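Protein 1 of 2
SEQ + STRUCT:
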Amino acid sequence: MKRIYLILIILVGISVSCTKNFEDWQKNTKAASEVPGEMFFTNAQKVLADQISSTSVNLNNYKLFAQYWTETTYTDEANYDLINRSIPDNVFRVYYRDLLRDLKEAKSIITATEVPVDQVDAKNNKLQIIEILEVYSFATLVEIFGDVPYSKALDINATLQPAYDDAFTIYKDLAARLDVAVGAMKDGAGSYGTADIYYGGDEAAWKTFAYSLKLRMAVTIADADNILASGWAVAAAPHAFTSSAQNCQLVYEAAPLSNTNPLYQDLVASGRNDFVAANTVIDIMNGLADPRRAVYFDNHVLTDYLGGTYGESSTFGNYTHVGAILHTETYPSTLMSYTEVEFLKAEAAARGWNVGGSSTDHYNAAIASSFADWGVDGVAEYLAKPEVAWDGSGDWRQVIGLQAYIAYYERGYEAWTTIRRLDYPVMNTPPSPVTTDGKIPRRFTYPINEQTLNKANYYAASAAIGGDAMETKLFWDKN
C-alpha cells in the first residue's frame, strides 16, 4: 500500500511539474505584456500615413481615379473595378481595425495611466491629439463611403453589428469635436515628444492642423450647407497653415524597408513596373508647358512627355514614367499641406466668405507654394501665362479645380475628392469602365463583408444614401 501511495505522489508531482513547464513554454518572454498608449498612437500614425501614400491596387486607387497614373498590364482598377480585389473591404479594415482601433486603445490606456501632477496637462494634450486624428480618419471614411458606423463603431462588447450613422450628422459632430479638442489643449505643456512621428509632440502644430482640417471640412460641405460651411471656414481660416513648414506629414526613413515610403516599396523594392503617367495629366500639363513636369515625371528615353492612354494596357518602356523623387525611400506622406490650405482659401473667397485676402491672392499663393515644395523655378512666368493668370472672374470652379489638380499630383485622394466636388478638370473615360456612366466613382461601394455580416444595417445605409453604387453622389457632392 505504501508503495502505491509513493507511486501516486510521484505521478502527481510529475503532472504538476509538466503543467507548470508547459505553461512556461507557452509564454513569449520577449513580448511585452503591457503596451504603452503612446505606442498605439505611433502605430496609428504610421498606418494612416502608409494608407495615404500607398499605391497598392489592393488598398489605394486614388492616383488612378485622379488619372495621374495608369496601369501597364492589369487595368481593372483604372477601369474603376473595386470588387475584384475587395478594395472597399480592405479600406474599411485599415481604417477601423488598424487605425481607429489603435487610437481607441491609445486613448483608453493613456486615460487610465496615472501621471505626476506636472504631466497632467501633457496627458490631456495627448488625448486631444488623438481626438484630432480620429476626426481626420472618420471624415475620410465619410468622404469615401457616405454613411458609416460611427456612434456604435469600435465597441465589440456592445455590438458586432454596428448601425450606420447619417454622414452629414457625423460630419457636424466631427467639427464640434475639433472645436472641443483645440479648446482643451494646454499651450506649452507638451505631449508625445518623439512618439509623435508627425509633429514631434508640438501641441501648437496640432492646433494649427486642426484648424486647417476644419477649413477643409467647411469647403467640402459648401454646396450642401453654405451658411454652416462659411461659419466654419471664417472661424478656422485665420488659424490655419501659413507656410509649408507647418505641413502635416510623415517623413519616412531610409531603412529598414518597413519604414520606407510605400511608394518606394511599390515602385522600386517590388521590382515591378505597374504604372506609367496617364495621358490625362500629361496632356493638361503639356498644354500649359508646366515646368513641374520635370520633377513629377521621368521622361527616360522619350523626347516629349507622353502619357499612356488612361485605362488601357500601356507598355512600360513606351511612356513617361513616374518621377524619380517619388522613388526615394524617405519621400514624405502628406495628410495636409499649406498649398492645399491656400487653394481652400481661394475657393472660400470665391464663394464670398470672409477668410481674409482675395481669391486671386490665395490662388497665386497656392501655385507658388506648389512650385516651392517641388523645388521648381519659374512660378512668376507660369502665373503670367494667359491660361493660368486669374483675376477672380469667370468660372472659379474650373480655374481653381484645374490648378489644384495639378498641384495635388502625389496626393491622389485629395485630387479625387476635389474632382468630385468641383467637377474639374474633366477626366477621360476609360475603355471598360465599371461605372454605368463611364465617369470616375463618386464613392466606394460598401464592403462585401458588411453585406453578409452586418446585413440589416448595410441595407438601411444603402437605402439612406440612395443606393450602394459607385455613381451615388454623397451628401456634399451636389454638382
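Protein 2 of 2
SEQ + STRUCT:
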Amino acid sequence: MSSTPSLARRLGTRDAVVIGLGSMIGAGVFAAFGPAARAAGSGLLLGLALAAAVAYCNAVASAQLAAQYPTSGGTYVYGRERLGEWWGFCAGWGFVIGKTASCAAMALTFASYAVGGSRLGQRLVALLAVLALTAVNYRGITRTARLARVLVAVSVLALLIVVVAIAVSGRSRTGVLDDLPFGTGGAHGILQSAALLFFAFAGYARIATLGEEVRDPARTIPRAIPVALGLTVALYAAVGVAALFATGPAALADSSTPIATAVQAAGSAWALPAVRIGAAVASLGSLLALIAGLGRTSLAMARNGDLPRWLASVHPRFEVPHHAELAVGAIVATLVLTTDLRGAIGFSSFGVLVYYAVANASAFTQSDEQRRWPRALNVLGGIACLVLVAALPPSAVIAGVLVFVIGLAGRALARWGRASRSSPTRAELRAHAPARPRPHGRAGARCHRGSRR
C-alpha cells in the first residue's frame, strides 16, 4: 500500500447499519420484482429466498474479512491480501464498473419518479442529484450518515404503506400462488429471478468498503452487516408477498413499475404518492451510498497503482478521498447526460456477483483464529455466486465478460509499460558498470601495451 493519509474513524454501529440499509433499500426493490416475475412467475418468492441466502453467505464473509482488514476498499483489499493482486483487481474492477452503471441508473430512476416529463428534463434533474450528493459525500462521512438516516426512514415508511395498503384493500388474489414452488419458469427461472433480485440486496458490503471509517471495526462491522441484511430481507419478503397477492405474477412481469402496479390492482390509488416518493427517495439513498463506496474502492485501487495515483488523495480537513469522489461524480454526471442505464440490472449483478465470489474465496483462506462463521458458508456462497452469474440473461453475461477482459488487458498493459520504463537501457547498464581494473607493475604495462596493439 502507498503511504497516503488514513481516513477518520467516525461511524458507530447505528451509522453503519443505516448506511447498509440505505445501500440496499434503494430503487432496486421498486424495479427488480418485474423482471424477476418475468423469469419465474410466482416462483420469484423462492428466488427471493435464494437471493437472500446467497446474500447472507456473502455478508458474513465480508464481515469476517473486514474485521481482519479494516481499511477502505472492501473485497479489492481482501482479494489482494488473501489470494493475490489479480484476484483483488477482478473484485475491484467488477465493483467499480458495475456500481458506476448503478449510480447512473439510480440517478435517472430518481428523476423519472420525482419529475416525470421530458427526457431532457429528467436528465437535468438527475445531474443535479449527482452533483448534490457528491457534494454531501465530499464534506465528510458523518454528513453522509446523517442524510442516509433521513432517506432510509422515508424509504422504509413508503414500503410499509404499500404493504398495509394492499393488506387492508380486501382484493388479494389467493390463487396466484397455486404454481409454487417453481412458478412458471422452472428451476432455471428461479435461478434467474434470484440473480436479478440479488441486485436489490447488493449493498450490505458497503459497510465493509467503509471499514477505514468505522470505530472499533472488529466489533462493529460483524454486527452491523447481518443486522442491516436481516432487516432488508424481512421488508423485501413482505413487499414481494403483498405485490404477488395484489396483482399476480403476469401483471408484475409486464410492468416497469411493479410496486405501483400492485397498489393500483389492490384499489389503493391513495398510496400511489407514497410509492412515487418512496422510489425517488430510495434512489437517492442508493446513489448516496454508492458514491461513497465507489470513492473508497477507487482510493484503495489508486493506492496500489491499479487506478491513477491522483485518486489516492485524502482531503486534509474533511478526511475523505476527495479526488476519487469528484472523479466518480464527474463520470456519473456524464453518463446520466448521455446514456440510459436503467436497464442495467443484469450487468450490475454480473459485476457484483464476481465481487462476492472473490470475497467468499478470500474468507475461505482465513485462519481459525480469524474465523467467526464456518467455512462451509464460504464454499456455499462462492458456488452460489457463480451459479447465479451463469443464470443471468445472456446479454448481461456477454457484456460483463467483455468488460472484465478489457479491464484485465488494461492492467496487464499498464504493468508492462511501468516495467519497461523502470528497466535500465543498455547505455545505462554500461554507464553504471564497474570499471575494469588495470594491471600494475612491469608485467601489467606489457599487457596493457599488448592490448593496445
